[in-house]
UniProtKB/TrEMBL annotation, chain A:
PANTHER family in the cross-refs: CELL DIVISION ATP-BINDING PROTEIN FTSE, LIPOPROTEIN-RELEASING SYSTEM ATP-BINDING PROTEIN LOLD
Recorded GO CC terms: membrane protein complex
Name of the protein in question: Macrolide ABC transporter ATP-binding protein
Keyword annotations: ATP-binding, Nucleotide-binding, Transport
Domain ABC transporter: from-to ranges: 6-229
Taxonomy of the source species: Bacteria, Bacillati, Bacillota, Clostridia, Eubacteriales
Molecular function terms, GO-annotated: ATP binding; ATP hydrolysis activity; transmembrane transporter activity
TrEMBL record, chain B:
Membrane topology summary: Multi-pass membrane protein
Name listed for the protein in its UniProt record: ABC transporter permease
Domain ABC3 transporter permease C-terminal span(s) in chain numbering: 271-383
Family: Belongs to the ABC-4 integral membrane protein family.
Alphabetical UniProt keywords: Cell membrane, Membrane, Transmembrane, Transmembrane helix
Protein backbone atom coordinates (compact mmCIF):
# COMPACT_ATOMS: atom_id res chain seq x y z
CA UNK A 1 0.00 0.00 0.00
CA UNK A 2 1.76 3.19 -1.16
CA UNK A 3 1.80 6.09 1.28
CA UNK A 4 0.01 9.15 -0.04
CA UNK A 5 2.01 12.27 0.88
CA UNK A 6 0.47 14.88 -1.38
CA UNK A 7 -3.22 15.21 -2.03
CA UNK A 8 -4.89 18.02 -4.01
CA UNK A 9 -8.65 18.19 -4.43
CA UNK A 10 -10.43 20.68 -6.70
CA UNK A 11 -7.63 23.13 -6.22
CA UNK A 12 -8.35 26.59 -7.64
CA UNK A 13 -6.06 29.59 -7.68
CA UNK A 14 -7.32 32.96 -8.78
CA UNK A 15 -5.38 36.18 -9.07
CA UNK A 16 -6.93 39.61 -9.13
CA UNK A 17 -5.22 41.60 -11.87
CA UNK A 18 -6.64 45.11 -11.64
CA UNK A 19 -10.40 44.68 -12.12
CA UNK A 20 -10.02 41.34 -13.82
CA UNK A 21 -10.13 38.03 -12.03
CA UNK A 22 -7.74 35.56 -13.57
CA UNK A 23 -8.21 31.87 -12.84
CA UNK A 24 -4.77 30.29 -13.13
CA UNK A 25 -5.52 26.85 -11.71
CA UNK A 26 -8.97 25.51 -12.57
CA UNK A 27 -9.65 22.65 -10.19
CA UNK A 28 -6.54 20.54 -9.92
CA UNK A 29 -6.75 16.99 -8.58
CA UNK A 30 -3.42 15.37 -7.88
CA UNK A 31 -2.21 12.59 -5.61
CA UNK A 32 1.44 11.75 -5.14
CA UNK A 33 2.78 8.77 -3.20
CA UNK A 34 6.04 8.46 -1.34
CA UNK A 35 8.80 7.47 -3.76
CA UNK A 36 7.13 8.90 -6.87
CA UNK A 37 9.15 10.86 -9.41
CA UNK A 38 6.53 13.08 -10.98
CA UNK A 39 7.22 15.37 -13.90
CA UNK A 40 4.81 18.27 -14.22
CA UNK A 41 4.98 19.16 -17.88
CA UNK A 42 3.52 22.29 -19.35
CA UNK A 43 4.27 25.24 -21.59
CA UNK A 44 4.86 28.68 -20.14
CA UNK A 45 1.68 30.36 -18.99
CA UNK A 46 0.03 27.02 -18.30
CA UNK A 47 -0.03 27.64 -14.54
CA UNK A 48 2.79 25.24 -13.70
CA UNK A 49 4.78 27.87 -11.76
CA UNK A 50 1.69 28.70 -9.70
CA UNK A 51 1.18 25.00 -9.05
CA UNK A 52 4.80 24.70 -7.99
CA UNK A 53 4.44 27.65 -5.61
CA UNK A 54 1.41 26.03 -4.01
CA UNK A 55 3.10 22.63 -3.75
CA UNK A 56 6.11 24.38 -2.21
CA UNK A 57 3.89 26.23 0.30
CA UNK A 58 5.10 29.56 -1.05
CA UNK A 59 1.48 30.31 -1.91
CA UNK A 60 -1.90 28.99 -0.80
CA UNK A 61 -4.89 27.95 -2.95
CA UNK A 62 -7.95 30.19 -3.32
CA UNK A 63 -10.24 27.21 -2.91
CA UNK A 64 -10.01 23.43 -2.75
CA UNK A 65 -7.91 21.40 -0.36
CA UNK A 66 -4.19 20.72 -0.35
CA UNK A 67 -2.88 18.16 2.12
CA UNK A 68 0.88 17.71 2.48
CA UNK A 69 1.97 14.84 4.74
CA UNK A 70 -1.60 14.80 6.03
CA UNK A 71 -1.53 18.47 7.00
CA UNK A 72 -3.98 20.92 5.43
CA UNK A 73 -2.06 23.77 3.84
CA UNK A 74 -4.17 26.89 3.98
CA UNK A 75 -3.79 30.56 4.70
CA UNK A 76 -1.48 30.15 7.69
CA UNK A 77 0.77 32.85 9.15
CA UNK A 78 3.97 33.22 7.17
CA UNK A 79 6.09 31.87 10.00
CA UNK A 80 4.02 28.66 10.06
CA UNK A 81 4.42 28.23 6.29
CA UNK A 82 8.16 28.83 6.75
CA UNK A 83 8.35 25.91 9.16
CA UNK A 84 6.41 23.65 6.79
CA UNK A 85 8.68 24.59 3.88
CA UNK A 86 11.77 23.97 5.97
CA UNK A 87 10.55 20.55 7.07
CA UNK A 88 8.68 19.24 4.04
CA UNK A 89 10.17 20.79 0.91
CA UNK A 90 13.60 20.71 -0.67
CA UNK A 91 13.69 23.37 -3.37
CA UNK A 92 15.86 23.06 -6.48
CA UNK A 93 15.78 26.11 -8.74
CA UNK A 94 16.60 26.67 -12.39
CA UNK A 95 19.17 29.36 -11.49
CA UNK A 96 20.55 27.31 -8.54
CA UNK A 97 20.01 30.26 -6.14
CA UNK A 98 23.22 29.82 -4.22
CA UNK A 99 24.49 32.69 -2.08
CA UNK A 100 27.67 33.88 -3.80
CA UNK A 101 29.47 34.95 -0.61
CA UNK A 102 29.15 31.57 1.06
CA UNK A 103 31.10 28.37 0.45
CA UNK A 104 29.34 25.33 -0.97
CA UNK A 105 29.15 23.83 2.49
CA UNK A 106 27.75 27.02 4.06
CA UNK A 107 25.14 27.17 1.33
CA UNK A 108 24.08 23.62 2.12
CA UNK A 109 23.92 24.46 5.82
CA UNK A 110 21.47 27.34 5.33
CA UNK A 111 18.21 25.38 5.71
CA UNK A 112 19.69 23.57 8.74
CA UNK A 113 20.31 26.94 10.40
CA UNK A 114 16.63 27.74 10.06
CA UNK A 115 15.77 24.26 11.33
CA UNK A 116 17.78 25.08 14.46
CA UNK A 117 20.34 22.30 13.98
CA UNK A 118 23.50 22.84 16.10
CA UNK A 119 26.66 23.90 14.31
CA UNK A 120 28.61 20.64 14.70
CA UNK A 121 25.76 18.54 13.36
CA UNK A 122 25.28 20.99 10.48
CA UNK A 123 28.90 20.55 9.44
CA UNK A 124 28.65 16.77 9.54
CA UNK A 125 25.39 16.55 7.67
CA UNK A 126 26.36 19.08 5.00
CA UNK A 127 29.71 17.38 4.45
CA UNK A 128 28.07 13.98 4.13
CA UNK A 129 25.47 15.17 1.63
CA UNK A 130 28.05 17.03 -0.50
CA UNK A 131 30.07 13.83 -0.55
CA UNK A 132 26.92 12.05 -1.73
CA UNK A 133 26.42 14.38 -4.73
CA UNK A 134 30.11 14.03 -5.65
CA UNK A 135 31.43 17.35 -4.34
CA UNK A 136 33.41 16.14 -1.34
CA UNK A 137 36.50 17.92 -2.69
CA UNK A 138 34.77 21.22 -3.41
CA UNK A 139 33.07 21.93 -0.10
CA UNK A 140 35.08 25.08 0.63
CA UNK A 141 34.65 26.53 -2.87
CA UNK A 142 32.37 29.43 -3.50
CA UNK A 143 29.72 29.16 -6.20
CA UNK A 144 31.76 31.25 -8.69
CA UNK A 145 34.56 28.70 -8.38
CA UNK A 146 32.23 25.90 -9.48
CA UNK A 147 30.81 24.92 -12.88
CA UNK A 148 27.07 25.16 -13.57
CA UNK A 149 26.63 21.43 -13.05
CA UNK A 150 28.54 21.55 -9.77
CA UNK A 151 26.48 24.51 -8.61
CA UNK A 152 23.29 22.60 -9.29
CA UNK A 153 24.69 19.66 -7.33
CA UNK A 154 25.31 22.02 -4.39
CA UNK A 155 21.70 23.18 -4.73
CA UNK A 156 20.51 19.55 -4.76
CA UNK A 157 22.61 18.83 -1.68
CA UNK A 158 20.99 21.84 0.00
CA UNK A 159 17.55 20.46 -0.89
CA UNK A 160 18.44 16.99 0.42
CA UNK A 161 20.17 17.99 3.64
CA UNK A 162 16.98 18.55 5.66
CA UNK A 163 15.63 15.16 4.51
CA UNK A 164 12.42 16.76 3.26
CA UNK A 165 9.27 14.91 2.27
CA UNK A 166 9.42 16.23 -1.29
CA UNK A 167 12.23 17.38 -3.55
CA UNK A 168 10.65 20.15 -5.61
CA UNK A 169 12.67 21.01 -8.72
CA UNK A 170 11.82 23.89 -11.05
CA UNK A 171 13.43 23.39 -14.47
CA UNK A 172 16.56 21.91 -12.84
CA UNK A 173 18.37 21.53 -16.18
CA UNK A 174 17.12 24.78 -17.69
CA UNK A 175 20.36 26.67 -17.14
CA UNK A 176 22.68 23.80 -18.07
CA UNK A 177 24.07 22.43 -21.32
CA UNK A 178 22.73 19.10 -22.54
CA UNK A 179 25.55 16.93 -21.24
CA UNK A 180 25.53 18.46 -17.78
CA UNK A 181 21.74 18.32 -17.81
CA UNK A 182 21.95 14.58 -18.39
CA UNK A 183 24.31 14.17 -15.46
CA UNK A 184 21.89 16.04 -13.21
CA UNK A 185 19.03 13.85 -14.44
CA UNK A 186 21.18 10.77 -13.69
CA UNK A 187 21.55 12.08 -10.14
CA UNK A 188 17.78 12.56 -9.92
CA UNK A 189 17.31 9.01 -11.10
CA UNK A 190 19.66 7.73 -8.43
CA UNK A 191 17.75 9.70 -5.80
CA UNK A 192 14.51 8.22 -7.15
CA UNK A 193 15.95 4.74 -6.82
CA UNK A 194 16.93 5.57 -3.24
CA UNK A 195 13.25 6.22 -2.59
CA UNK A 196 13.13 10.00 -2.60
CA UNK A 197 9.92 11.67 -3.68
CA UNK A 198 10.62 14.10 -6.52
CA UNK A 199 8.34 16.60 -8.23
CA UNK A 200 9.96 18.20 -11.24
CA UNK A 201 8.41 21.11 -13.10
CA UNK A 202 9.51 21.43 -16.73
CA UNK A 203 8.42 22.54 -20.17
CA UNK A 204 10.79 20.08 -21.85
CA UNK A 205 9.22 16.84 -22.97
CA UNK A 206 12.58 14.98 -23.02
CA UNK A 207 13.46 16.07 -19.51
CA UNK A 208 9.97 15.16 -18.31
CA UNK A 209 10.48 11.59 -19.52
CA UNK A 210 12.96 11.05 -16.71
CA UNK A 211 10.04 10.92 -14.29
CA UNK A 212 8.19 7.78 -13.31
CA UNK A 213 4.97 9.67 -13.90
CA UNK A 214 4.18 12.62 -16.12
CA UNK A 215 1.30 14.97 -15.49
CA UNK A 216 0.52 17.61 -18.06
CA UNK A 217 -0.76 21.00 -17.17
CA UNK A 218 -2.38 23.01 -19.91
CA UNK A 219 -4.29 26.22 -19.33
CA UNK A 220 -4.77 25.52 -15.65
CA UNK A 221 -6.04 21.96 -16.08
CA UNK A 222 -4.15 18.84 -15.17
CA UNK A 223 -4.22 15.56 -17.02
CA UNK A 224 -2.39 12.37 -16.20
CA UNK A 225 0.04 11.50 -18.95
CA UNK A 226 2.08 8.50 -19.97
CA UNK A 227 3.72 6.34 -17.39
CA UNK A 228 7.35 5.87 -18.08
CA UNK A 229 7.99 2.70 -16.18
CA UNK B 1 20.76 31.70 14.83
CA UNK B 2 21.92 34.87 16.53
CA UNK B 3 25.57 33.90 16.19
CA UNK B 4 25.00 32.98 12.54
CA UNK B 5 23.37 36.35 11.91
CA UNK B 6 26.35 38.22 13.35
CA UNK B 7 28.72 36.10 11.26
CA UNK B 8 26.66 36.70 8.13
CA UNK B 9 26.49 40.42 8.89
CA UNK B 10 30.28 40.62 9.23
CA UNK B 11 30.81 38.62 6.04
CA UNK B 12 28.47 40.94 4.22
CA UNK B 13 30.18 44.06 5.54
CA UNK B 14 33.61 42.72 4.61
CA UNK B 15 32.49 41.82 1.10
CA UNK B 16 31.36 45.44 0.60
CA UNK B 17 34.34 47.09 2.29
CA UNK B 18 34.26 50.48 0.59
CA UNK B 19 30.53 50.89 0.92
CA UNK B 20 30.52 49.72 4.53
CA UNK B 21 33.29 52.17 5.37
CA UNK B 22 31.56 55.12 3.72
CA UNK B 23 28.34 54.26 5.50
CA UNK B 24 30.14 53.96 8.82
CA UNK B 25 31.87 57.29 8.26
CA UNK B 26 28.80 59.20 9.39
CA UNK B 27 28.70 57.29 12.66
CA UNK B 28 32.48 57.52 13.04
CA UNK B 29 32.40 61.31 12.69
CA UNK B 30 29.34 61.61 14.92
CA UNK B 31 30.57 59.44 17.77
CA UNK B 32 34.13 60.76 17.37
CA UNK B 33 33.08 64.39 17.71
CA UNK B 34 30.72 63.76 20.62
CA UNK B 35 33.37 61.81 22.54
CA UNK B 36 36.14 64.28 21.70
CA UNK B 37 34.07 67.28 22.80
CA UNK B 38 32.83 65.71 26.00
CA UNK B 39 36.29 64.46 26.93
CA UNK B 40 37.99 67.77 26.14
CA UNK B 41 35.42 69.76 28.11
CA UNK B 42 35.53 67.41 31.09
CA UNK B 43 39.33 67.44 31.07
CA UNK B 44 39.41 71.23 30.95
CA UNK B 45 36.76 71.41 33.66
CA UNK B 46 38.67 69.17 36.02
CA UNK B 47 41.82 71.21 35.45
CA UNK B 48 40.02 74.47 36.22
CA UNK B 49 38.22 73.10 39.26
CA UNK B 50 41.44 71.54 40.55
CA UNK B 51 43.08 74.95 40.36
CA UNK B 52 40.19 76.63 42.08
CA UNK B 53 40.12 73.90 44.71
CA UNK B 54 43.87 74.29 45.23
CA UNK B 55 43.19 77.87 46.25
CA UNK B 56 41.14 76.23 48.92
CA UNK B 57 37.63 74.96 48.90
CA UNK B 58 37.63 75.71 52.62
CA UNK B 59 38.37 79.40 52.23
CA UNK B 60 36.07 82.38 52.12
CA UNK B 61 37.29 85.61 50.58
CA UNK B 62 35.95 88.90 51.87
CA UNK B 63 36.27 92.09 49.88
CA UNK B 64 35.28 95.36 51.51
CA UNK B 65 34.05 98.16 49.27
CA UNK B 66 33.08 100.24 52.28
CA UNK B 67 30.27 102.71 52.79
CA UNK B 68 30.49 106.49 53.26
CA UNK B 69 30.09 105.91 57.00
CA UNK B 70 32.54 103.03 57.33
CA UNK B 71 35.32 102.70 54.81
CA UNK B 72 36.71 99.37 55.95
CA UNK B 73 37.20 96.94 58.78
CA UNK B 74 39.20 97.74 61.83
CA UNK B 75 41.47 95.30 63.60
CA UNK B 76 38.66 94.89 66.11
CA UNK B 77 36.19 93.82 63.38
CA UNK B 78 38.72 91.31 62.09
CA UNK B 79 39.23 89.90 65.55
CA UNK B 80 35.48 89.42 65.92
CA UNK B 81 35.30 87.44 62.70
CA UNK B 82 38.22 85.27 63.72
CA UNK B 83 36.31 84.29 66.84
CA UNK B 84 33.45 82.69 64.84
CA UNK B 85 33.15 78.93 65.30
CA UNK B 86 34.93 76.69 62.74
CA UNK B 87 37.20 79.48 61.63
CA UNK B 88 40.83 78.49 62.01
CA UNK B 89 42.23 81.83 61.04
CA UNK B 90 41.79 85.10 59.23
CA UNK B 91 44.36 86.41 56.82
CA UNK B 92 43.98 90.12 56.02
CA UNK B 93 45.69 91.30 52.86
CA UNK B 94 47.00 94.77 52.26
CA UNK B 95 47.98 95.30 48.62
CA UNK B 96 49.98 97.94 46.92
CA UNK B 97 52.46 98.63 44.18
CA UNK B 98 55.99 99.55 45.12
CA UNK B 99 59.58 99.70 43.99
CA UNK B 100 62.35 97.53 45.42
CA UNK B 101 66.11 97.92 45.42
CA UNK B 102 69.26 96.21 46.63
CA UNK B 103 72.73 97.65 46.65
CA UNK B 104 73.23 96.41 43.12
CA UNK B 105 69.93 96.83 41.35
CA UNK B 106 66.34 98.03 41.51
CA UNK B 107 62.89 97.07 40.20
CA UNK B 108 59.70 99.07 39.67
CA UNK B 109 56.05 98.03 39.65
CA UNK B 110 56.40 95.32 42.24
CA UNK B 111 53.34 93.94 43.96
CA UNK B 112 53.47 94.54 47.69
CA UNK B 113 51.32 92.29 49.85
CA UNK B 114 50.83 92.60 53.53
CA UNK B 115 50.10 89.18 55.06
CA UNK B 116 50.04 87.48 58.44
CA UNK B 117 51.16 84.13 59.83
CA UNK B 118 47.73 82.59 59.19
CA UNK B 119 48.15 83.01 55.43
CA UNK B 120 51.46 81.15 55.42
CA UNK B 121 50.24 78.38 57.71
CA UNK B 122 47.17 77.72 55.56
CA UNK B 123 48.74 77.92 52.12
CA UNK B 124 50.77 75.02 50.84
CA UNK B 125 54.24 75.35 49.36
CA UNK B 126 54.28 79.07 49.69
CA UNK B 127 57.97 79.54 50.56
CA UNK B 128 61.03 77.81 49.17
CA UNK B 129 63.55 78.94 51.79
CA UNK B 130 63.82 81.03 54.93
CA UNK B 131 61.05 81.53 57.46
CA UNK B 132 57.51 82.83 57.41
CA UNK B 133 56.10 85.96 59.05
CA UNK B 134 55.66 85.35 62.78
CA UNK B 135 53.11 86.78 65.23
CA UNK B 136 55.99 88.73 66.78
CA UNK B 137 56.72 90.38 63.40
CA UNK B 138 53.08 91.41 63.27
CA UNK B 139 53.09 92.70 66.80
CA UNK B 140 56.27 94.71 66.31
CA UNK B 141 55.41 95.80 62.76
CA UNK B 142 58.84 94.41 61.91
CA UNK B 143 60.54 95.40 58.71
CA UNK B 144 60.98 91.91 57.34
CA UNK B 145 60.13 90.68 53.85
CA UNK B 146 59.69 87.54 51.78
CA UNK B 147 60.53 88.05 48.13
CA UNK B 148 59.68 86.33 44.83
CA UNK B 149 62.17 84.44 42.68
CA UNK B 150 62.21 87.09 39.93
CA UNK B 151 63.34 89.63 42.50
CA UNK B 152 66.00 87.23 43.82
CA UNK B 153 67.32 86.89 40.27
CA UNK B 154 67.24 90.60 39.57
CA UNK B 155 68.49 92.09 42.85
CA UNK B 156 70.76 89.36 44.19
CA UNK B 157 71.83 87.73 40.91
CA UNK B 158 70.15 84.48 42.01
CA UNK B 159 72.26 84.16 45.21
CA UNK B 160 70.57 83.45 48.51
CA UNK B 161 69.11 86.76 49.71
CA UNK B 162 68.40 85.51 53.26
CA UNK B 163 69.53 88.04 55.83
CA UNK B 164 70.30 90.60 53.14
CA UNK B 165 68.83 94.06 53.13
CA UNK B 166 66.20 95.17 50.67
CA UNK B 167 64.73 98.62 50.15
CA UNK B 168 60.97 98.54 49.69
CA UNK B 169 59.49 101.91 48.89
CA UNK B 170 62.70 103.44 50.15
CA UNK B 171 62.61 101.79 53.56
CA UNK B 172 65.08 99.11 54.47
CA UNK B 173 63.80 95.61 55.30
CA UNK B 174 65.53 92.37 56.06
CA UNK B 175 64.86 89.44 53.73
CA UNK B 176 63.68 86.49 55.81
CA UNK B 177 62.42 84.15 53.09
CA UNK B 178 61.99 83.41 49.42
CA UNK B 179 58.53 82.72 47.98
CA UNK B 180 58.09 79.48 46.07
CA UNK B 181 58.18 79.83 42.32
CA UNK B 182 54.60 79.86 40.97
CA UNK B 183 53.60 78.34 37.67
CA UNK B 184 51.74 80.25 35.01
CA UNK B 185 48.36 78.79 36.01
CA UNK B 186 48.41 80.04 39.60
CA UNK B 187 45.87 82.60 40.71
CA UNK B 188 48.41 85.32 41.23
CA UNK B 189 51.97 85.59 40.15
CA UNK B 190 54.09 85.65 43.28
CA UNK B 191 57.38 85.57 41.41
CA UNK B 192 57.65 89.35 41.35
CA UNK B 193 55.95 90.05 44.67
CA UNK B 194 57.19 91.03 48.08
CA UNK B 195 55.31 90.00 51.20
CA UNK B 196 55.66 91.87 54.51
CA UNK B 197 53.65 91.76 57.77
CA UNK B 198 50.26 93.35 57.10
CA UNK B 199 50.60 95.53 60.16
CA UNK B 200 53.80 96.94 58.69
CA UNK B 201 52.11 97.28 55.28
CA UNK B 202 49.21 99.30 56.72
CA UNK B 203 51.71 101.87 57.88
CA UNK B 204 53.60 101.87 54.60
CA UNK B 205 50.59 102.36 52.32
CA UNK B 206 48.80 104.57 54.83
CA UNK B 207 45.79 102.27 55.23
CA UNK B 208 43.54 102.78 58.23
CA UNK B 209 41.29 99.85 57.45
CA UNK B 210 41.51 96.34 56.21
CA UNK B 211 39.67 95.91 52.91
CA UNK B 212 40.52 92.38 51.90
CA UNK B 213 40.93 89.14 53.77
CA UNK B 214 40.75 85.43 53.46
CA UNK B 215 39.00 83.36 56.10
CA UNK B 216 40.05 79.74 56.62
CA UNK B 217 37.47 77.21 57.76
CA UNK B 218 38.48 73.92 59.37
CA UNK B 219 35.57 71.91 58.00
CA UNK B 220 34.53 72.17 54.34
CA UNK B 221 31.10 70.81 55.20
CA UNK B 222 30.54 73.81 57.43
CA UNK B 223 31.59 76.29 54.75
CA UNK B 224 28.06 77.45 53.93
CA UNK B 225 26.94 77.85 57.54
CA UNK B 226 30.13 79.64 58.49
CA UNK B 227 29.85 81.92 55.48
CA UNK B 228 26.37 82.89 56.65
CA UNK B 229 27.70 83.68 60.06
CA UNK B 230 30.48 85.85 58.62
CA UNK B 231 27.86 87.64 56.54
CA UNK B 232 25.74 88.33 59.61
CA UNK B 233 28.80 89.67 61.35
CA UNK B 234 29.69 91.98 58.47
CA UNK B 235 26.12 93.18 58.11
CA UNK B 236 26.18 94.19 61.74
CA UNK B 237 29.55 95.91 61.33
CA UNK B 238 28.16 97.94 58.40
CA UNK B 239 24.92 98.75 60.22
CA UNK B 240 22.82 96.64 57.88
CA UNK B 241 24.23 98.07 54.66
CA UNK B 242 25.00 95.00 52.55
CA UNK B 243 26.61 97.04 49.75
CA UNK B 244 29.70 97.59 51.86
CA UNK B 245 31.15 94.10 51.46
CA UNK B 246 31.31 91.10 49.24
CA UNK B 247 31.81 87.50 50.37
CA UNK B 248 33.07 84.86 47.96
CA UNK B 249 32.96 81.23 48.99
CA UNK B 250 35.30 78.98 46.91
CA UNK B 251 32.78 76.17 47.04
CA UNK B 252 30.20 78.39 45.33
CA UNK B 253 32.74 79.23 42.60
CA UNK B 254 33.35 75.51 42.10
CA UNK B 255 29.64 74.87 41.86
CA UNK B 256 29.23 77.65 39.30
CA UNK B 257 32.10 76.31 37.18
CA UNK B 258 30.65 72.81 37.37
CA UNK B 259 27.19 73.82 36.27
CA UNK B 260 28.55 76.05 33.51
CA UNK B 261 30.77 73.39 32.02
CA UNK B 262 28.15 70.70 32.22
CA UNK B 263 25.78 72.95 30.27
CA UNK B 264 28.62 73.62 27.82
CA UNK B 265 29.40 69.95 27.32
CA UNK B 266 25.73 69.10 26.89
CA UNK B 267 25.37 71.84 24.30
CA UNK B 268 28.46 70.80 22.36
CA UNK B 269 27.52 67.15 22.61
CA UNK B 270 24.03 68.01 21.40
CA UNK B 271 25.36 69.82 18.36
CA UNK B 272 27.74 66.97 17.57
CA UNK B 273 24.98 64.41 17.92
CA UNK B 274 23.24 65.97 14.92
CA UNK B 275 25.95 64.27 12.88
CA UNK B 276 24.96 61.00 14.55
CA UNK B 277 21.47 61.39 13.16
CA UNK B 278 22.94 62.11 9.73
CA UNK B 279 25.07 58.99 10.11
CA UNK B 280 21.99 57.01 11.02
CA UNK B 281 20.23 58.17 7.87
CA UNK B 282 23.29 56.99 5.91
CA UNK B 283 22.93 53.56 7.47
CA UNK B 284 19.23 53.44 6.69
CA UNK B 285 19.96 54.37 3.09
CA UNK B 286 22.59 51.66 2.68
CA UNK B 287 20.37 49.05 4.32
CA UNK B 288 17.49 49.91 1.99
CA UNK B 289 19.83 49.53 -1.00
CA UNK B 290 21.07 46.28 0.47
CA UNK B 291 17.54 44.92 0.87
CA UNK B 292 16.75 45.76 -2.75
CA UNK B 293 19.98 44.19 -3.99
CA UNK B 294 19.46 41.06 -2.00
CA UNK B 295 15.80 40.55 -2.80
CA UNK B 296 16.42 37.15 -4.32
CA UNK B 297 18.59 36.14 -1.35
CA UNK B 298 15.72 37.05 0.96
CA UNK B 299 13.32 35.05 -1.22
CA UNK B 300 15.66 32.07 -1.16
CA UNK B 301 16.07 32.22 2.62
CA UNK B 302 12.31 32.33 3.01
CA UNK B 303 11.89 29.37 0.66
CA UNK B 304 14.44 27.46 2.73
CA UNK B 305 12.42 28.09 5.87
CA UNK B 306 13.44 31.48 7.27
CA UNK B 307 10.67 33.12 9.25
CA UNK B 308 9.96 36.82 8.64
CA UNK B 309 11.26 37.66 12.09
CA UNK B 310 14.52 35.82 11.36
CA UNK B 311 14.98 37.87 8.18
CA UNK B 312 14.19 41.02 10.13
CA UNK B 313 16.67 40.05 12.83
CA UNK B 314 19.39 39.37 10.27
CA UNK B 315 19.08 42.80 8.67
CA UNK B 316 18.74 44.52 12.02
CA UNK B 317 21.90 42.82 13.25
CA UNK B 318 23.67 43.95 10.09
CA UNK B 319 22.81 47.58 10.70
CA UNK B 320 23.63 47.34 14.41
CA UNK B 321 26.98 45.65 13.70
CA UNK B 322 27.71 48.34 11.12
CA UNK B 323 26.92 51.17 13.50
CA UNK B 324 28.65 49.61 16.51
CA UNK B 325 31.85 49.10 14.52
CA UNK B 326 31.52 52.71 13.39
CA UNK B 327 30.90 53.72 16.99
CA UNK B 328 33.99 51.91 18.25
CA UNK B 329 36.20 53.43 15.54
CA UNK B 330 34.66 56.84 16.23
CA UNK B 331 35.23 56.39 19.95
CA UNK B 332 38.93 55.60 19.43
CA UNK B 333 39.36 58.57 17.10
CA UNK B 334 37.50 60.84 19.51
CA UNK B 335 39.65 59.76 22.46
CA UNK B 336 42.88 60.20 20.50
CA UNK B 337 41.71 63.61 19.34
CA UNK B 338 40.80 64.65 22.87
CA UNK B 339 44.16 63.41 24.14
CA UNK B 340 46.05 65.40 21.49
CA UNK B 341 44.03 68.53 22.24
CA UNK B 342 44.57 68.10 25.99
CA UNK B 343 48.32 67.81 25.39
CA UNK B 344 48.34 70.92 23.20
CA UNK B 345 46.31 73.22 25.44
CA UNK B 346 47.78 71.68 28.57
CA UNK B 347 44.63 70.64 30.37
CA UNK B 348 43.97 67.33 32.05
CA UNK B 349 42.80 64.24 30.18
CA UNK B 350 40.21 62.13 31.93
CA UNK B 351 38.33 59.38 30.15
CA UNK B 352 35.06 58.54 31.79
CA UNK B 353 33.71 55.00 31.68
CA UNK B 354 30.34 56.53 30.94
CA UNK B 355 31.59 57.83 27.59
CA UNK B 356 32.44 54.29 26.45
CA UNK B 357 28.92 53.20 27.32
CA UNK B 358 27.59 56.35 25.69
CA UNK B 359 29.44 55.74 22.42
CA UNK B 360 28.61 52.06 22.08
CA UNK B 361 25.07 52.46 23.38
CA UNK B 362 24.34 55.41 21.16
CA UNK B 363 25.64 53.76 18.02
CA UNK B 364 23.78 50.52 18.76
CA UNK B 365 20.64 52.57 19.30
CA UNK B 366 21.14 54.30 15.96
CA UNK B 367 21.62 50.93 14.27
CA UNK B 368 18.33 49.69 15.71
CA UNK B 369 16.34 52.85 15.03
CA UNK B 370 17.57 53.39 11.48
CA UNK B 371 17.87 49.70 10.64
CA UNK B 372 14.32 48.93 11.67
CA UNK B 373 12.54 50.16 8.54
CA UNK B 374 14.83 48.37 6.05
CA UNK B 375 14.74 45.17 8.12
CA UNK B 376 10.97 45.28 8.26
CA UNK B 377 10.82 45.85 4.52
CA UNK B 378 13.02 42.79 4.00
CA UNK B 379 10.92 40.62 6.29
CA UNK B 380 7.74 41.54 4.45
CA UNK B 381 8.94 40.62 0.98
CA UNK B 382 6.82 37.97 -0.68
CA UNK B 383 9.10 34.96 -1.28
CA UNK B 384 7.61 34.30 -4.73
CA UNK B 385 8.26 37.85 -5.93
CA UNK B 386 11.62 37.84 -4.25
CA UNK B 387 12.72 34.60 -5.93
CA UNK B 388 11.56 35.79 -9.32
CA UNK B 389 13.78 38.88 -9.25
CA UNK B 390 16.93 37.20 -10.46
Amino acid sequence: MPEKILDMKDLVKTYIMGDEEQVVLKGINLEINRGDFVSVLGPSGSGKTTLMNIIGCLDVPTSGAYHLSGELIRDLPESALSHIRNREIGFIFQQFQLLPRLSAQKNVELPLIYAGVPEKERHERSAAILERVGLGEKMKNRPNQLSGGQQQRVAIARALVTEPTILLADEPTGALDQKTGHQIMDLFHELYLEGKTIIMITHDEDVAKNGSRIVRIIDGNLSEGVYNV
Amino acid sequence: MFKESIKMALENLVSNKMRSFLTMLGIIIGVGSVIALITIVSGATSTVTDQVASMGANTVTIQIQGTPLKQGLTQGDVNKISEIKNITGVSPTISGITAVASNDNSMEEISLQGKNDVYFKNTEDVISSGRIISPIDLENKSRVALIGTDIVDELYAGKSPLGQEIKIGGITYTVIGVLAESDSFASSDTNSSVMIPYTTAMGVVGAKYINSMTVFIDDEAMAVATTQEIEANLKKAFNGNTDGYNIVNMQSILDTIDSMTSILSMMLGGIASISLVVGGIGIMNMMLVSVTERTSEIGLRKALGAEPKQIQMQFLIESVVLSIIGGIIGFIIGVVLAYVVAMIIGTGFTLKASSVILAVGFSAGIGIVFGFTPARKASRLNPIDALRSI
